[in-house]
């Protein structure tokens, strides 16, 4: 039965994408859904974009091994990121009528910086997408016995197809449908496992006191890894294009901010469910933690020990989550390619041709992501890699540029170059403290000092625009 229902489910997703494509009349429809998304759509699509393979297959295995310190870094940090953006960033940037993060850098600093930041952001996405493709390939292997590499390609083609034809409208509608399935599937599976254990009390009683600590082991390495992952999810993701693509797609700044708070709540609340499922499954079947480093513990539990209805509902929910994340992550860099590389350098291009090139960029991003997926199969590691580049190069000029009027073009270049140089140097030197921590500090210091050493001639008029109501 599972063999029948899963292909039907995937076909329904493709049909939704095809139906949504009828609303795509121009580039704005494709990239920003015509700026018509309600707060509910914004919140759900934000949640669905982040609630993917990492939250269901990567993070739960870390929770089983490390306890509540992993919950803080891998679950709470992401929700905190949405809340921070809602509190401090969303309203200011929405007023500027932007399409991408790169547009802000072009308006605030220079065209050359726009191109540089856009390229950095584009290169940050393939590892993130690769993590989703790896997870889907693991699922196809579990359900159909399909070779992993073939599963990666098939997954990429499925996501690419409905993202290509429907853009943000397809992503939004499928995210809404998939989020309902995600919640239903997770809750039903959790309830089923609770019947076997008699509740969570026996599961938690088997754990040592250290499992319940919100902080890591009190060692340099422990704190370094903890802070690096927490900062990657909470700070590194603040300039991520997929967040602002949903903010800029909202029908108003109020809808965008409300959507961010909703997304934050959903991400933290629903992300706890797969972690509880994983720890319960490990309690019942500890041998499953030895397969793929525990990344497959939830799918393996469902396949081996659950009834057919549970399998159908769960795998439909899991595929929902991963497809949502993959589609949003593919659309973000494709939008940057179209808006910040093609449109910027060819201002006379027609909207119809720009839409075509933006769609073709989806195909290109999918192909590159497949390459990353073939190289590395660690889901959480792939996600952290994608966020590290943004954190050490983009966060400082982005944040200082919004909130500090004395930020200068020279300071922004210094932040990008020094942040990347320190990060790469520490990476090669294999420093005890994680390189992203050094890179982030170095980038912020360079932004501040560089702006004081060589200030811009006058305060940029963009600050007046951000204050307008």
UniProtKB/TrEMBL annotation:
Transmembrane feature ranges: 6-24, 36-56, 68-90, 115-140, 146-165, 177-194, 223-240, 260-284, 312-333, 354-375, 381-403, 410-430, 436-453
Annotated family: Belongs to the sodium:solute symporter (SSF) (TC 2.A.21) family.
Domain of life of the native organism: Bacteria
Database matches in Gene3D superfamilies: Sodium/glucose cotransporter (1.20.1730.10)
Membrane topology reported for the UniProt record: Multi-pass membrane protein
Protein's organism: Algoriphagus namhaensis
Pfam families named among the record's database cross-references: SSF
Compartment annotation: Membrane
Keyword Transmembrane helix: yes
Keyword Glycoprotein on entry: no
InterPro entries: Na/Glc_symporter_sf, Na/solute_symporter, Na/solute_symporter_CS, Sodium:Solute_Symporter
PANTHER family: SODIUM-SOLUTE SYMPORTER-RELATED, SODIUM/PROLINE SYMPORTER-RELATED
CDD domains assigned to the protein according to its UniProt record, in alphabetical order: SLC5sbd_CHT (cd11474)
Keywords, sorted A to Z: Cell membrane, Membrane, Transmembrane, Transmembrane helix, Transport
PROSITE patterns reported for this sequence: NA_SOLUT_SYMP_2 (PS00457), NA_SOLUT_SYMP_3 (PS50283)
Protein name: Sodium:solute symporter family protein
